[in-house]
């Protein structure tokens, strides 16, 4: 019999509240930053909060992965190990790591996931990680569908991939832009996001090819139309980016993808979701109504051109085109329901994203705080939907575990049995005085009603079966007491029945695919050096963060190409261009660009 494959929807958790929101909206797993050493330092969490979230998640068999995915310095190794030991004791299902020095520690048998910061792009490197004892890799965002298929053919590792959210323009783990320009390392969780700033593109003669534009800012990823293809390609975990996003974003996006995946899994044989529980909601998800810079499928299907976001700000959802402009209001071609406080925006004549808030709506007339730049014919977007956020807040999604309850009469009392879809079962035997009911139907209805009242628990009664030799009457207080007792028994058993996967790392000596490691291997501590030396490294250059001389170093590698953006792709015969090209920031600082057209990659250099 063919084994059923479990498909995982993986959602971000900035904190406990966001984690609960993700779980309730249908996540099969969540990832959250630990107390320190997560790649988003603004999203660190206390051990207590992580423990509480794990307890809540495991009720629905939702897994919790703790991100400890920065590179570490020697004086941090002991603290990082203690954090790993603590989250293991709390019940974390896995840790997400970038620093290979962690694999040299004496770790508890916790599952280890290789962060996308490990630059999981090359098949040979991924096969190496499998031999090391890594159980899952988070694939590079730049991979195509065909590349994912090829990786699936060559490894038995679990494959996790991003399907939604902000895109790093650099190949993950290979960006040193922020460290070079602001002394804030992306690989240490402190990225200053220089890619979201404006630059000019100039040629070797100083000619400006693009002036003061957000040239490195990408649209957001959206693979919601490609989920079926990704399942067929071998992806098992579908990851939503957003560990700095709020509860509205997490709820809306998770619920959107939950429904998409459920429809696919319903028609695909041999697959099912990896957690349990039913979702109850009375609002419709809409990913355009929460933060987005426009959407792209990146390089999944082809060598994409439509990647630049024009602005790093959220443009939200298109609501219409301006028909009439007056001094203090405008009218859209088609009416749309707006609320006071809604944020509206538009691209002005210089393609800058501008906007203001709605102060009043009177019939078709929309009044803004500031009407500057609004013109007839322009498209208007809503990037803050007050009504939608209120709907999410006032009607939070709920998640329940269906259970079956059987109440059966026996000599001297009754037996109450509760079970769920996993096979968890408890039986409560109670001696009880029996009173014959005057009204059989009313008595049965009363028993069923009281045992269905599970509102203060995570359970919902799918079926209440009553087997009596004769119609019996029970006081409501007795029925409630019996229900509480048996549900408490069942809840305790379910919590004890959760089993996580555990794996130990056994040191090996198989060769790393690269012999001479540059700073791009991100080796920043002695344990990482030991790891690579054992695996055959001939030389190891220190990580960029601890290099003494950073001049002339490559600070970004990306598949996103500015020659292509301006229509000068050499492969497409876009015309001659006077190289080298430079990116110039607002302070006049130049960054050299190099193009590896065989690999379709662009490189950015520091102080060339």
What report would you give on this structure?
The protein is α/β, with parallel strands linked by helices and 608 residues long. It has 4 domains: 5-167 and 219-289, TIM Barrel, CATH 3.20.20; 178-215 and 509-608, no CATH class; 313-394, Thrombin, subunit H; 401-497, no CATH class. 24% of the residues lie in helices and 28% in strands. It has an 8-stranded parallel β-barrel, surrounded by 5 helices. Strands 9-8-30-31-32-29 form a 6-stranded antiparallel sheet, with no helix packed on it. A 6-stranded antiparallel barrel has the order 15-16-19-18-17-20. The chain is globular, with a radius of gyration of 28 Å. The N and C termini lie far apart (61 Å). The model has no long low-confidence stretch (mean pLDDT 95).
Please outline what is shown here:
With 608 residues, the chain is of the alpha/beta class. The termini are far apart.
Q: What structural keywords apply?
A:
608 residues, alpha/beta, TIM Barrel, Thrombin, subunit H, eight-stranded parallel β-barrel, six-stranded antiparallel sheet
């Amino acid at each position: 019999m063919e084994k059923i494959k479990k498909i995982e929807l993986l959602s971000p958790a900035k904190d406990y509240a966001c984690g609960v929101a993700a779980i309730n909206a249908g996540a099969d797993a969540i990832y959250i930053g630990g107390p320190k050493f997560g790649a988003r330092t603004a999203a660190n969490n206390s051990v207590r909060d992580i423990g509480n979230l794990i307890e809540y998640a495991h009720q629905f068999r939702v897994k919790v992965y703790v991100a400890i995915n920065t590179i570490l310095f020697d004086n941090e190794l002991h603290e990082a190990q203690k954090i790993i030991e603590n989250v293991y004791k709390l019940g974390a299902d896995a840790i997400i790591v970038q620093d290979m020095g962690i694999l040299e520690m004496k770790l508890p048998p916790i599952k280890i996931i290789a962060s996308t910061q490990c630059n999981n792009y090359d098949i040979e490197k991924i096969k190496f990680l499998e031999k090391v004892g890594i159980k899952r890799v988070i694939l590079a965002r730049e991979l195509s569908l065909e590349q994912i298929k090829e990786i699936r053919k060559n490894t038995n590792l679990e494959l996790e991939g991003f399907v939604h959210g902000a895109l790093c323009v650099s190949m993950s783990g290979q960006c040193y832009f922020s460290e070079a320009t602001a002394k804030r390392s992306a690989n240490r969780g402190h990225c200053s996001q220089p890619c979201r700033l404006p630059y000019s593109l100039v040629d070797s003669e100083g000619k400006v090819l693009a002036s003061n534009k957000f040239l490195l800012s990408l649209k957001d990823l959206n693979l919601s139309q490609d989920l079926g293809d990704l399942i067929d390609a071998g992806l098992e975990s579908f990851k939503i980016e957003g560990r700095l996003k709020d509860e509205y974003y997490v709820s809306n996006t998770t619920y959107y993808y939950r429904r998409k995946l459920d429809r696919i899994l319903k028609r695909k044989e041999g697959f099912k979701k990896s957690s349990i529980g039913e979702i109850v909601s009375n609002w419709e998800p809409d990913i355009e109504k929460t933060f987005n810079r426009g959407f792209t499928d990146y390089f999944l299907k082809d060598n994409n051109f439509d990647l630049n976001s024009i602005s790093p700000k959220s443009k939200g959802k298109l609501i219409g085109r301006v028909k009439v402009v007056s001094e203090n209001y405008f009218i859209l071609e088609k009416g749309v329901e707006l609320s006071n406080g809604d944020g509206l925006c538009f691209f002005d004549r210089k393609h800058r994203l501008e906007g203001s808030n709605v102060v009043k709506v009177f019939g078709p007339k929309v009044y803004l705080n500031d009407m500057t730049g609004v013109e007839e014919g322009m498209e208007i977007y809503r990037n803050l939907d007050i009504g939608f956020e209120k709907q999410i807040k006032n009607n939070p999604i709920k998640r329940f575990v269906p259970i079956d309850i059987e109440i059966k009469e026996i000599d001297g009392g009754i037996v109450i049995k509760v079970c769920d879809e996993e096979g968890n079962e408890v039986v409560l035997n109670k001696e009880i005085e029996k009173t014959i009911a005057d009204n059989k139907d009313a008595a049965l209805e009363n028993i069923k009603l009281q045992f269905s009242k599970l509102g203060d628990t995570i359970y919902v009664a799918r079926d209440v079966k009553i087997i009596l030799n004769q119609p019996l009457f029970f006081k409501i207080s007795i029925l409630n007491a019996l229900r509480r007792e048996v549900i408490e028994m069942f809840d305790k058993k379910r919590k004890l029945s959760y089993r996580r996967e555990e794996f130990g790392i056994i040191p090996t000596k198989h060769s790393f695919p690269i012999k001479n490691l540059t700073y791009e291997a991100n080796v920043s501590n002695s344990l990482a050096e030991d790891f690579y030396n054992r695996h055959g490294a001939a030389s190891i250059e220190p990580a960029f963060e601890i290099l003494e001389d950073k001049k002339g170093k490559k600070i970004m590698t990306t598949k996103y190409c500015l020659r292509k953006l301006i229509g000068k792709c050499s492969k497409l015969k876009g015309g001659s261009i006077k190289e080298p090209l430079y990116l110039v920031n607002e302070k006049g600082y130049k960054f050299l660009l190099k193009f590896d057209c065989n690999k379709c990659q662009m490189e950015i250099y520091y102080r060339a």
